[in-house]
Amino acid sequence: MTPSILLICFLGYTLLLFLITYITARKANNESFYIGNKRSPWFVVAYGMIGASMSGVTFMSVPGWVGTSQFSYFMVALGYFFGYIIIANVLLPLYYRLNLTSIYSYLEQRFGFWSYKTGAFYFMLSRVLGASLRMFLIIYVLQHFVFDAWGFPFWLTVVIFISLIILYTFKGGIKTIIWTDTLQTTFMLLALVLSIVLISKDLDFSFSELVTRIFDSEYTKMVVTDWAPRNNFVKQFISGIFITIVMTGLDQEMMQKNLSCRNIGDAKKNMITFSFIIVAANFIFLFLGAALFTYADVKGIDLSLLASSDDVFPTIAIKYLGPFAGLVFFIGLISAAYPSADGALTSLTTSFSIDILGLQKNTTYSEQKKTNIRYLVHIGFALLMLVVILTFRSFYDKALIDKLFTIAGYTYGPLLGLYSFGLFTKLQVKDKWVPLVAVLSPIICYFLSDNSYAWFGYKFGFELLILNGLLTFIGLILLRKRNAVA
User: Fold this and answer.
1) Which pLDDT does position 367 carry in this prediction?
2) What pLDDT sits at residue 330?
3) 433-445, pLDDT tens digit by residue?
4) E strand or H helix at 429, and its extent?
5) From CA 135, how far away is CA 143, in angstroms rounded?
6) Contacts of 142 (CB under 8 A, 6+ apart)
7) How many CA atoms lie within 13 A of 132 on its CB side?
8) In a 10 Å sphere around its CB, with 0-12 CB exposed, 13-18 middle and 19+ buried, how is residue 438 labelled?
9) Is the Cβ–Cβ distance between 103 and 252 less than 8 Å?
10) pTM of the model
11) Structure confidence at residue 200 (pLDDT)
């Protein structure tokens, strides 16, 4: 498959996104950008959120993890399900009752100014790092398979990709993303299914034969009972619950889409429907991973020669399954890439405009001036993400992608502690000291995580997030005001 064909597919897919943007962004205003005028159909939001939740990292990394972790990741996915149920029944009713546009406004009402700004800051930090990391992986693949052939420098590829995202989210925001996410989800899931079909065909197996071969292999082991490893099933399951709560329920990007539904009833239907679909989609990713390793076993392909498990899917799809399979992989990867970038940029713009600049409360600025400021914020965050992506490039060691959830553990932990304290206690805190607690908790977490195996014979996995939240919660108890309740 030539770079020219891949480039044509990339441009064709992008033009399709711009067509949807043109249709959805007409007559859009600030309310459209922030919450889609609260007119988004819940079933469209539920379906589109699959693409937003499963980034290019999921698309490439989860199938590759099957080689070393088998299906143990599915215990995390089961935890996701229960996390979404908690969001639907605890957080969504709170956000709708308070009629929030930015979910971090809750912290101002509950604790005060500094808690509010701390929550918004940690979201922006989390989203800039996480989204940039996801985008880096996609751009890295685009560079390797397409733009290197024309001698494009990496920084120019980054500029092109981010510029395209700016253009199609600039005006419509959430109103546009709700619909473009459905397109991207469709292509991503189609790529998964087609890849499995092509593997089965190339092996000359019927689908039932492939299923039997996979479930008779070692790859489908789900439950790891040994307590020490990071993928112990209890750790995985509980971590999955909390990862969902913080990376969806306490994340402006994901909640912004839910808040664009017409009412709380629609938002709940969206979240519960999505919870079932996301578990099934994760299982398909794992099944694809097992199919890839089964293919390698049958064909005698030595995957140990690859630099990273992230390379398993693209290597087999492009080098062994033929041009059509490579094309399917490439389209699926692009489909997984765009939702990670467009939603992040829109939510960052929303949070900064509302939480930091206070544009929604400002009555002195005209609507046009608010819009112009929002445009500048949008471009500013795009430039910041460009810098972060180029920074990742300078020390990429093929293990960077595995650190995504670790980054989330450090940056979302204070949010988990703040919201838990606000929801489950009636205590008031000394607001001005909250930022100090939010800084100290991740630092303490880092030292505990770095030394836990030497000190306790225990290695932290995704549950580092829970520890971080707990430390923040304890810190807030120490900051409580005597005889003062909410």
Assistant:
1) 80
2) 81
3) 999 999 999 999 8
4) strand 427-429
5) 12
6) 10, 157, 161
7) 23
8) buried
9) yes
10) 0.81
11) 92
* The amino acid at 76: V
Which pLDDT tens digit goes with each residue over 448-482?
887 877 787 777 766 788 889 999 999 999 999 87
Structure-token pair, residue 49 = 């959120």
User: What whole-number distance in Å separates Cα of residue 40 and Cα of residue 109?
Assistant: 27
For 302, phi then psi, to 5°, come to -90, 95
**Domain regions of the chain by residue span:** 3-403
Please, what is the Cα angle at 223 between 420 and 76, to 5 degrees?
Answer: 35
pLDDT of residue 56: 65
- In one-letter notation, the amino acid at residue 98 is L
Segments in 146-203 forming alpha helices (H): 154-169, 174-202
Sequence-distant (6+) residues with CB within 8 A of 112 are 431, 434
Phi/psi-derived region of residue 428, left when phi > 0, alpha when psi is between -120 and 50, beta in every other case: beta
Could you report the per-residue pLDDT of 240-295, keeping only the tens digit for each? 898 889 888 888 878 878 888 888 998 899 889 989 988 998 999 999 999 999 99
Instruction: Report the 3 state secondary structure along the chain.
Output: CCHHHHHHHHHHHHHHHHHHHHHHCCCCCHHHHHHHHHCECHHHHHHHHHHHHCCHHHHHHHHHHHHHHCCCHHHHHHHHHHHHHHHHHHHHHHHHHCCCCCCCHHHHHHCCHHHHHHHHHHHHHHHHHHHHHHHHHHHHHHHHHCHHHHCCCHHHHHHHHHHHHHHHHCCCCHHHHHHHHHHHHHHHHHHHHHHHHHHHHHCCCCHHHHHHHHHCCHHHCCCCCCCCCCCCHHHHHHHHHHHHHHHHHCCHHHHHHHCCECCHHHHHHHHHHHHHHHHHHHHHHHHHHHHHHHHHHHHCCCHHHCCCHHHHHHHHHHHCCCHHHHHHHHHHHHHHHHHHHHHHHHHHHHHHHHHHCCCCCCCCCCHHHHHHHHHHHHHHHHHHHHHHHHHHHHCCCCCHHHHHHHHHHHHHHHHHHHHHHHHHCCEEECHHHHHHHHHHHHHHHHHHHHHHHHHHCCCCCCCHHHHHHHHHHHHHHHCEEEEEEC
The answer for residues whose C-beta is within 8 angstroms of residue 435's C-beta and 6 or more apart is: 114, 117, 118
The structure tokens listed for 485 are 């309740």
CA atoms 311, 333, 218, 69: torsion sign: positive
Ranges under pLDDT 50 in the chain: 399-401
What CATH homologous superfamily does 3-403 map to? Sodium/glucose cotransporter (1.20.1730.10)
Nearest to 413 by CA among 443, 391, 383: 443
